[in-house]
From TrEMBL:
Function: RNA polymerase that catalyzes the synthesis of short RNA molecules used as primers for DNA polymerase during DNA replication.
Domain notes: Contains an N-terminal zinc-binding domain, a central core domain that contains the primase activity, and a C-terminal DnaB-binding domain.
Quaternary structure and interacting proteins, as annotated: Monomer. Interacts with DnaB.
Record lineage: Bacteria, Pseudomonadati, Pseudomonadota, Betaproteobacteria, Burkholderiales
SMART domains associated with the record: TOPRIM, ZnF_CHCC
Entry coiled-coil feature ranges: 573-600
Cofactor(s) annotated in UniProt: Zn(2+)
UniProt xrefs under Pfam families: DnaB_bind, DnaG_DnaB_bind, DNAG_N, Toprim_2, Zn_ribbon_DnaG
Protein's UniProt name: DNA primase
GO biological process: DNA replication, synthesis of primer
Single annotated GO MF: DNA binding
Domain Toprim: 263-345
Biological source species: Herminiimonas arsenicoxydans
Cofactor note as given: Binds 1 zinc ion per monomer.
């Protein structure tokens, strides 16, 4: 768990204009910066970034947040990954409970990682430059129907046919980083040769080069394709500190905006599928890196979109790949996620299918792809004979691990019902037999917990001012906080949470940091945060006076309510009369305070 104090310090150091500016072209517009929103299609800029609030807001789609939130939404990073990315850019080391390395050792590892990244970037630039002058490689790509525009978008290049072509860009060819990041093979390491027999050579030679980027756009590996009949057809970077095949997807960095616009991600089997689909009008395609689809792949895709379509060849290898993708997807399948499987005829890949049948026909294939529920049942049935008890029992046996991997949901219930129908059972029998967690067919699901009632009137005004200027929370005395007693219980809790969080941030409390803390805590302040983000920043001194006035009005209402109660009781008894006089004095004091503040403003 990353300490909240670190999050606060980080947001105080980063500049959201620089962070967003890496991905969105921004222009100065008054006190803020403007640009085209990266989260929805628009022709006129409605996306603003406030350097004073350290917050972004889109007036078109309502997207808003801090620098951390932007990286999460735009790049599909997880919270920790986004924090680490920002921290690295400002020279901070993220403290983690599970990280027991001494700070010096962590700093050394970070420096090593940066050296590897630099080597990969230089190699990528070298390969791209080589492609400009490699007629054979260019003719091969043209023959595959690719334009220079698509090749440039994906950073494609060419590794020259020589043993040490990278020596041109790395004069110190003996650098350890070249071996560690997989650019160079050291024969001594591979064969245990004596130091005197050591021979280094480029891993990639005479191949079309496909750079693999992470969610930050950094080159972390390469895929190299032969242009003739050589083997292997594709050569990938080895596993390195930067690159783990089971965690990365080729083309995801380039496809993010297209995925949002299309409403789905299309997962294919290879690099060439991705660039060919982009060329033919389907830039929302990505590919696994010569390995089976993993749960990490699925998680990354579902951060970008609610619909993922896996496209595989219709042969046995394609079916096996689809089965592995199904198993990786099951833990994340739910009622608000759509996962489908597209099987093309065995003689076609996506590229050849579109060229033969046309883009519209392929689009229809995508729309008609097999839903996860149907594919799961199809896999469970397999070659089993549903006309016999043995065949139906075997089908249930094969379905059991698949259903156990699904989270409890309406989708799982629908699949259970489908399985029960084809195996002549009841849903309750299936759930009991499979020992499914939280059976759904026998127990009515509890309604989801609703959000607390939104504050209105003076309650809302007080909370809004404290969210926009959390430093004011430290100035409130106990008498001011007593106004919470006049709030409804759930809104009193909201005020206490707000004041507590603000005070814990200390003198450097600000809107952006508080908004990030409120977001990560799953609170009910998002509407207020969005409203504040959409407006120009107010002066803290004016806000202080407004807050005092709102608290005073709330107190006046409290006093008036109590006085009305006393009057209704007939003011019987000395104690009631004394309390009424006390309340009258308090009313007068509040009126004088209001007059004094009016005079101060005047």
């Amino acid at each position: 768990m990353i300490p909240q104090s670190f999050i606060q310090d980080l947001l105080n150091r980063v500049d959201i204009v620089d962070v967003v500016g890496r991905y969105v072209q921004l222009k100065k517009g008054g006190a803020n910066f403007m640009g085209l929103c990266p989260f929805h299609n628009e022709k006129s800029p409605s996306f603003t970034v406030s350097p004073t609030k350290q917050f972004y807001h889109c007036f078109g789609c309502g997207a808003h947040g801090t620098a951390i939130g932007f990286l999460i939404e735009y790049s599909g990073m997880g919270f920790v990954e986004a924090v680490k990315d920002l921290a690295q850019n400002v020279g901070m080391l993220v403290p983690e409970a599970e990280d027991r390395l001494p700070p010096a050792q962590r700093a050394e590892q970070q420096a090593k990682s940066m050296a590897l990244s630099e080597a990969m970037n230089r190699a990528c630039d070298f390969y791209r430059q080589q492609l400009r002058h490699a007629e054979g490689a260019k003719n091969y790509l043209i023959g595959r129907g690719l334009t220079g525009e698509v090749a440039a978008r994906y950073g494609m290049g060419y590794a020259p046919d020589g043993w040490d072509g990278l020596r041109a860009v790395f004069p110190d060819y003996e650098l350890d980083a070249l071996v560690e990041c997989g650019l160079v093979i050291d024969k001594a390491e591979e064969e245990g040769a004596d130091h005197r027999q050591r021979k280094r050579y480029d891993r990639f030679r005479d191949r079309i080069m496909f750079p693999i980027r992470n969610s930050k756009g950094q080159v972390i590996g390469f895929g190299g394709r032969v242009m003739g009949d050589g083997e292997p057809k594709y050569l990938n970077s080895p596993e390195t500190p930067l690159f783990q095949k089971g965690s990365e997807l080729y083309g995801l960095f380039e496809a993010r905006q297209a995925i949002r616009e299309a409403g789905y991600a299309l997962v294919t089997e290879g690099y060439m599928d991705v660039v060919a689909l982009a060329q033919l009008g389907f830039p929302q395609a990505v590919a696994t890196l010569g390995t089976a689809c993993t749960s990490i792949h699925v998680q990354k895709l579902l951060r970008q979109t609610d619909q993922v379509i896996f496209s595989f060849d219709g042969d046995k290898a394609g079916r096996r790949a689809a089965r592995r993708a199904l198993e990786a997807s099951l833990p994340y399948a739910g009622d608000n996620k759509v996962i489908k499987f597209l099987f093309l005829p065995s003689e076609h890949d996506p590229d050849s299918y579109i060229r033969a049948m046309g883009a519209e026909s392929f689009e229809k294939q995508v729309q008609d792809a097999m839903p996860l529920s149907q594919f799961l049942l199809k896999e469970a049935v397999g070659d089993n004979d549903l006309g016999t008890p043995e065949g139906r029992a075997r089908t249930q046996f094969d379905a059991k691990p698949l259903l156990q991997a699904l989270p409890p949901s309406s989708l799982r219930l629908q699949i259970v019902r489908g399985l029960a129908q084809i195996t002549e059972s009841t849903p309750a029998e299936i759930e009991a037999l499979f020992e499914l967690v939280q059976p759904i067919s026998r127990v009515r699901a509890a309604p989801p917990k609703g959000k607390r009632t939104a504050p209105v009137g003076l309650e809302r005004q007080i909370m809004r001012l404290l969210v926009e200027h959390p430093v004011l929370a430290a100035e409130l005395d106990q008498a001011a906080l007593d106004v919470a007693a006049h709030f409804a219980p759930e809104r009193a809790d909201m005020l206490v949470q707000l004041v507590t969080m603000s005070r814990e941030m200390g003198v450097h409390a600000n809107f952006a940091t508080l908004a990030e803390l409120l977001r990560s805590s799953g609170s009910d302040f998002d509407t207020l945060v969005a409203e504040i983000a959409a407006e120009s920043e107010s002066d803290v001194d004016a806000a202080r006076l407004e807050l005092a006035g709102a608290i005073r009005q709330t107190k006046m209402k409290m006093l008036a309510t109590e006085m009305e109660t006393l009057i209704a009781s007939g003011l019987s008894g000395e104690q009631a009369q004394a309390r009424y006089r006390e309340l009258t004095l308090q009313q007068e004091q509040l009126r004088r305070q209001a007059q004094a503040e009016m005079a101060q403003r005047g």
